[in-house]
Amino acid sequence: MVWALFPVDPVSGEDKYYIFARGTYKVGRKGCDIIINKDKGVSRIHAEIVVDALNSLNPLNKRPFNTLSKVRIRDCSKYGTFINKNLGQKEKVHELPNKETTLEDGDLVSFGTGNATYRFCFVPLIFFVCSESSQVNQPLQDKISAIG
């Protein structure tokens, strides 16, 4: 399972960011995991994306992506971090309890004064493994499962 932040209105040189593992990812202007230079209102350390759990997606499982992962965003800034839940009403993360909220597939996240907007979304990670033998290569299957 892979999560991503894609710029909504990309400019030349603006990066896409992929999240492959659990942990805390700092968002800001300098020295962060996710660098945002598009908006002058973005703090040096503006926000944190906290991935509490990344679970494998079983194609036979009908549960939505949101129940498989636990991802939160925490505001650490002066100008704010805003979440637009699936094209609904904008929420200022700074005003929510503990200055954080859960991120879900399709949420729009704006940093600073609003010029830097990203779509938080699930990106399917698909592996094709070809083998000459009919037996499953268990070590390979274990490595692929560990990726999520």
Automatic annotation (TrEMBL):
Subcellular location per the Swiss-Prot or TrEMBL entry: Chromosome; Nucleus
Domain FHA, residue spans: 18-84
A Pfam family this chain is assigned to: FHA
Keyword Metal-binding in record: no
Keywords per UniProt: Cell cycle, Chromosome, DNA damage, DNA repair, Nucleus
A cellular-component GO term for this protein: Mre11 complex
GO MF term set: damaged DNA binding
Origin superkingdom: Eukaryota
Biological-process GO terms, alphabetical: double-strand break repair via homologous recombination; mitotic G2 DNA damage checkpoint signaling
Family annotation (InterPro entries): FHA_dom, Nibrin-rel, SMAD_FHA_dom_sf
Family the UniProt entry places it in: Belongs to the Nibrin family.
Protein name stated in the entry: Nijmegen breakage syndrome 1 protein
Organism listed in the record: Quercus suber (Cork oak)
